[in-house]
Amino acid sequence: MMRKLLNILAAGGLLTLTALTVQGQSPAPEGHFHGHRMGAGHFGPPLHVLEEYLHLSASQTAAAQTLHQTLRDTVRPLFEQTRALHGQIREALDSATPDAAAIGRLMISSHWIHQQIRATHENYEKGFRALLNPDQVTRYNSFLELRKASRKQGPPSTEGE
Predict the structure, then answer these.
(1) Rounded to an integer, what distance in angstroms lies between the CA atom of residue 25 and that of residue 108?
(2) Domains in the chain: how many in total?
(3) 133 Rama sector, left if φ>0, alpha if ψ -120 to 50, beta otherwise
(4) In the chain, which stretches have pLDDT less than 50?
């Protein structure tokens, strides 16, 4: 039963990687992970932007800096582990005889790490929101909605230039 599940997971991973290749998407460049820039330690909006937009007090800013540093210190090694796992998955897929069970195990490990990253971000978000007063929470929610909407639209078009 477990072997069948691993084979199914591996097949799903192969289909996903194949679909990405067909769409012309390449793996994230070095220093990036799923749209996150890793080199500069960027995790979410810069704190100085939130400080200004939300009118954070000095004590709120200091507490937010501590939360942000904890997030960064926790997530960075997880990103590095995931990057290494993705390299192993690519190598396994490129081998002459890919082992579906081994690939499935690597993908499950990657999934567990993604879950840890998600939980870490959720904890950061809860901690950050706990620092805010009700008016700041409302402003923060608006900020996140604007950010989400701008990401959906993508970069400005350069057609006709």
Answers:
(1) 22
(2) 1
(3) beta
(4) 5-7, 10-11, 14-42
Is the entire prediction scored with pTM above 0.90?
A: no
3-state secondary structure of 55: coil
For residue 33, tell me if it sits in a domain.
no
Tell whether 47 is covered by a domain. no
- How far apart (Å, rounded) are the C-alpha atoms in residues 117 and 52? 27
Q: Residue 152 has what pLDDT?
A: 78
Taking the C-alpha atoms of residue 14 and residue 93, their distance in angstroms, rounded to an integer, is 8
Structure-token pair, residue 93: 């897929």
Give the residue carrying structure tokens 């929101």.
Answer: 129
Residue 54 tokens, joined: 């939300």
Which residue, among 77, 50, 78, 79, has the nearest Cα to 64 in the 3D structure?
Answer: 50
